[in-house]
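As described in the Methods, two query proteins were run sequentially through the folding procedure within a single session, without resetting any intermediate state between them. The first query and its resulting structure tokens are shown here.
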Amino acid sequence: MATYSAPLREISFVLNEVLKAGRLAETVPAFSDATPEVMMEMIEAAAKFSEKELFPLNASGDIEGCTRHADNTVSVPKGFTEAFKAYSANGFVGICNPTEYGGLGLPYTLWKVVEEMVCSGNVAFALYPGLTGGCFEAILANGSEEQKNIFLPKLSSGQWTGTMLLTEPQAGTDLAAVKTKAIPQADGTYKLEGGKIFITSGEHEMAENIVHFALARIEGAVPGVKGLSTFVVPKYLVNADGSLGARNPIFCSAIEHKMGIHGSVTAVMNLDGAIGTIVGKPNEGIMNMFVMMNLARIMVGFQGLGQMELATQNAVRYALERKQPKPIIDFPDVRRMILQMKALTEGARVMAYETALYVDYAHHHPDAAVREEANDWVELNTPLVKAFCTDGAVDMGSTAIQVYGGHGFIAEHGIEQILRDSKILCLYEGTNGIQAMDLVRRKLFLNDGRAAKRFFALVQAAANGAGPEYAFIAEPLKKALGDLEFTTRWIHETFRSKPDEASFGCCDYLKAFSLVYLGYNWLRMAQAANSSGDEAFKATKLTTARYFASKLLTQVTPLCETVKSGAGDFMSLTAAQLAA
């Protein structure tokens, strides 16, 4: 059977020795109490919860799944409700929410570290508090004071949960096709009519109420995304005194039967005149929704990171235990797979944690210049974290099965579940192809490419400043960085006149960019590890850094060549010809 042990030594190393997260408490007054000791205390509590309470429900929840009943209610797997109440009671739901709305007021970074462990322990369970946090952020950013006071404290406590109602059968990536309509009422509310699909946590009875953050078109609004608005639509209407009122006519008509994440409810929701209140101004819904979606994309990246860790540590454990007749970890190909899993998972952790730190600085640092630069990093990193970590989860799940051999294909070992649970991560909150297009078509061009230029300068300075003992990674990093910069210039020059040519290799470009980022991370990890008094830890880190430098960083050059080869005549065939 699979096991999970939170990688506390690795988490502390990345936070405190590589990224120096203690600077948050030193430079951001809002986080003056969030010292490394306080952060690690909360992390250790969440680690214990993930190991002892959530992971034991992972396999059973996958087998049992969720059930819709004739009265439109949905039951979740056995143990989930009790675990959610305990999770809420521990304060994990509102870790980074402002104290005035019932949260703990701690850094977003801490929430994401906790989320990684929760997603390793039980990624299906993690979606219930995860979407609740996204709903909280959306209302906090754009809601009225009345909406904030009504909904945010209950979302922080976990007494109520949240969802995001976007997708419709005809409107996935193309939100301009949303048909759900909002009909104005005399009292200032709206009646919403329509249907939504793929709604995570859309119906359950783990909490007293469910707050749906919905995208709809006010009757008579202009077509396209410019005519969309956002609404809060609670499962139960809320009375003036905060108590629950009548059942709102928003119902689950079906639940999806999926490849994975069986413990998470994925609902088809019907709005039959459900009462909602508008969030923000009319026709600004797409901007309001992206507040939630951008942070949700980082959340999904952390889901991927959690699954990468789960796959990697189980592959390592099995390779140590399995003898044929010697431990299979001593066979070269298995050793290669283990080193590759460690190199990618540990490198991705630095990228994900650093992105979370930039979110904290962008939102809370007192210096406007620091906030601006941090926001640049968040914009640039979001598609990288979402796509690279989720593709990595699928790759690590597949590699873990390969390490196990035939036993990995058998359900009782719990490894094939990682692959099944992880594939959705590459699809929701914008497919990974959409993330690559976002990087190439938008993020590279923001503010005249300022974010990418800052990244290139920082990595170049780090590689140039590395001592001779780090030449094994600094030199290939310089080569990879040079190829990435040249390819970025090619994209800039080509995109304006030949967008298809520049976009055809966007997924390869995102992978190349991510590998350069991980090369920068491994240089920093090698430097930090050299200061460690733990000789075994140091040796493992340096060996893994050498593996990344020689076997993975070298992939950047051919990836860049593929990007620059463009679309050629591949876009010239008609759809009918291609289908023939």
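Immediately afterward, the second query was submitted; its sequence and tokens are:
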Amino acid sequence: MPALVGLLLVVFAIAGLLVYEAWNTGRSRREIAERGLQDYAAYASWAAARAGENILTASLSTIFRGIAGNRVAAGEDVTPLTTLLAGAQYLAQCDCAMNLPADYYFRYDSRSNVVETKPFSPPPPNLKIESGWAAAKVGSYTVQSSKPTLIEPDEAWLASSLERTNLESLPNFAMYFASENGESRVVGIAPQRDSLGKIIGALGFVTPSKRFADATFSNLWRNPRILPAAITRGIPNDSLLAAVVTTPDGTEIYRSRGWIDGLRSDTASLGTFGGGMRMKVALRPDATIRLQGGVVPVSRVPVWVGLLLLTGLLTVFIVRNLQREHELARLRLEFSASVSHELRTPLAQILLFGETLTLGRTRSDTEKRDAANVIVREARRLMHLVDNTLTFSRAERPVVSLSPRRQPLAPLVREVIAGFRPLAAAKEVTINQNLGDDVEGFVDGEAFRQIALNLLDNAVKYGPASGRVTVSLTNGHTRLALEPAQKQKQVVRRATIRLTVDDQGPGVSGRARDEIWVPFARGMNGETPVGTGCGLGLAVVRELAERHNGSAWVESAPGGAGSRFVIELPDASAREEIPSLEPARPEPVGAAVV
């Protein structure tokens, strides 16, 4: 009895410890999920602010076209107000930017402190009025049926406001907030300078801040790129997000429908061209549920308490399952970290050079072309990572099949090399090719391109800078295979073709020659991982090669420096099988007969 009681106490103690670990793990995951939701809110706030700033920049640059940055000769008058009215007319009729809801336009001469104003009612833009389900969506944009009451120009107030404004510090065009009789106003302005660079006046427009914010953010919510499409899935942004907008002095000028105090939120500024507006964006409950789904685990404490009644054998099984769960979590974290690192660098480059082009910071056509080339190169790198991930995930589903057909392989390899050269050039790697034009294979074109692309990417990634990669495509090879005959298995020779990629990297030896083909594995230099990939490239290569009835292996490159990766596939131009007189024997992995 004492032994039995002691055994039961041990079982209960172990189960109690498992209950605590389960609770602690769930709590930790909930904390991680909470931090992830806060990061989503911060991202949504940043993305919305940048999109709003882009909208305002496009509209201001359009309405002030022909005015911003222009200089008049010394002693001449400020640009006529008709030029600004023509820009407003163009903005209202074109589909290039948001129509600015200006109540009146002005021309200001700082030398005489005289203001000239003129109301202007541009034709309404061709806005699409939603109906049915789209109009019933929570917070969706609708066109106002009643015409707003325009404010009357107050030239004395405007002259005083412009006189207090430091026009010298403003860019070619901008906007700022001012108070008129306790009401907030938006002043869009384009300073005017003479040929000596001296401020002589300004042109611009005035409108109530709330009306301006309503128009701006109604347009902003229709921007499809604030949250990723994988999250929104066609749901409008304002059904997932809510926002409160204030002026730099803290005056609230906009509050979207659905805003509730206590929502998870973050704040961002719209910058210079947004007048310094502060935008506080929150995740609405629907968005929180979407982002939390599958992230925050359900408490399993009752299940673990039930295990207290089970035997010690079941306890052992539970411990084993927990170990596997922790291992899976570790692999997922490593994979997420690798993919995040792989995505961050090209995204940062694309964003940097994209903003450079958008803001016109390039000084020559050569700089524009270089920036565009960087964007294309980094986009190709992202596409390669996505293709590897998709190919690997599809390989896990038996329902996804290839569509092979007989075709020459040299054009496919040349196409891959041509597309990969910009990525190789970034590391100053030279790609040499030795491709047989008569080599044919029974392959799926896209899958074969993926094989060649992954091998090139692997060779450049693990090879030295300013190195050399050699790609060869040859036929005339044979391999031994066991085929079932009528009474016993028969050894036959099969004609094959080979795609080889030689690099000048550190080489692969020992157990690593098998381990590098495992998903999420990376090359090692001693105990240190080499490269920054996510470990799917070579796994995808072997999977696709085997699905083409081929094989993949790695060996030392000729001369002993670097590695040679070999893909062997059946030769479509010599399909016949030749009986062999050699006795059947086990064939080592990757072995071939030349």
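Residues 2-63 form the longest helix (62 residues). We note this only descriptively and draw no conclusion about the first query from it.
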